[in-house]
Amino acid sequence: MFVQAFIYQTKISLYWFWSIISSSDYFSIQSTGGRMLELRRGIMILWGTDHGIFLNSLIVAFNVTIACSVIGVVLAMIMGRYNFPAKRVFQIVLLVPLLATPFVNAYVIGKLFNPRNGLINWLLNDVLRLIPWRLDIDGLFGIAVAQTLAYYPIVYMNTVASLNSIDPSLEEMAENLGAKGFRLFRTVTFPLIVPGLAAGAIMTFIFSLEDLGAPIGFVGARANPLARRVVSYQIYNSFAEALTGGISPRTAALAVLILFVTALSY
Question: Which residue among 158, 229, 239, 242 is the one 20 to 30 A from 3 at the CA level?
Fold first, then answer.
């Protein structure tokens, strides 16, 4: 299959790669569609903006990585540095998302945040009245939320492992020299947990980039066309169509580009 990506009119060529890179359907700096923070008829629309299939995947993966890194570091510091009742239970609960796939998260989020009859919107808007409008989480933004809920434990586990391996005497010496609170974290603790954080972040980026479950989940839950505008779904769709024909050389080139970005991440 991959050989097709380098063949054009029976000759070795990079034509298919250039056709992807130069196409606004795959790369577009300016938004070509989608909705983000748009308030319409009492509904706050959070779908994300369309910047082309390939760029959409990179943007989603980058945002998921940042969100998971922040959540993972905060949870690692809480679990690694503080003792409180039922701590062991919380440690187990934090790993539960690993048991559910992004597909399940996406489908559930799509249903819970349905602006018409979603349970979360009913609670926040109708019962508790915490927000003046209903939330419509779908599309690329929804994919990012579903993947964040699924992959933050990866960053958390790697970071807490690095945190537990730190020699306590290093932080004690820093405290004796006057470093406390956030300064201690910024100058001593954080640099020491960077290797674990980086490992978890790289894995999260790769998993997000190649995840197919979340896009399919949102397509199934709400049928939002924006959820189809990611590389993994396009490749899946091409393979599904290939059951009645051949695989497009452009699809093969798209798969090669994803593999290249994945290898580059390492």
Answer: 229
* DSSP assignment of 29-86: SS--SEEEEEEETTEEEEEEE---HHHHHHHHHHHHHHHHHHHHHHHHHHHHH---TT
Cα–Cα distance measured from residue 213 to residue 228, given in angstroms and rounded to the nearest whole number: 11
- Give domain 2-265's CATH superfamily: MetI-like (1.10.3720.10)
Q: How many CA atoms lie within 13 A of 27 on its CB side?
A: 9
Q: CA 113, CA 126: separation in Å to the nearest integer?
A: 13
What is the pLDDT tens value at each position of the chain, 266 positions in all? 678 878 788 888 888 889 988 999 999 988 888 888 888 888 888 899 999 999 999 999 999 999 999 999 999 999 988 888 989 999 999 998 888 878 888 888 888 888 888 888 888 888 888 888 888 888 999 999 999 999 999 999 999 999 999 888 888 898 888 888 889 899 999 999 999 999 999 999 999 999 999 999 888 888 888 999 999 999 888 877 766 666 788 888 888 898 889 888 77
Alpha helices in 87-189 (DSSP H): 87-93, 102-112, 119-121, 139-164, 168-176, 181-184
In the block, residue with structure tokens 């947990």: 193
pTM: 0.90
Enumerate the domain spans of the chain: 2-265
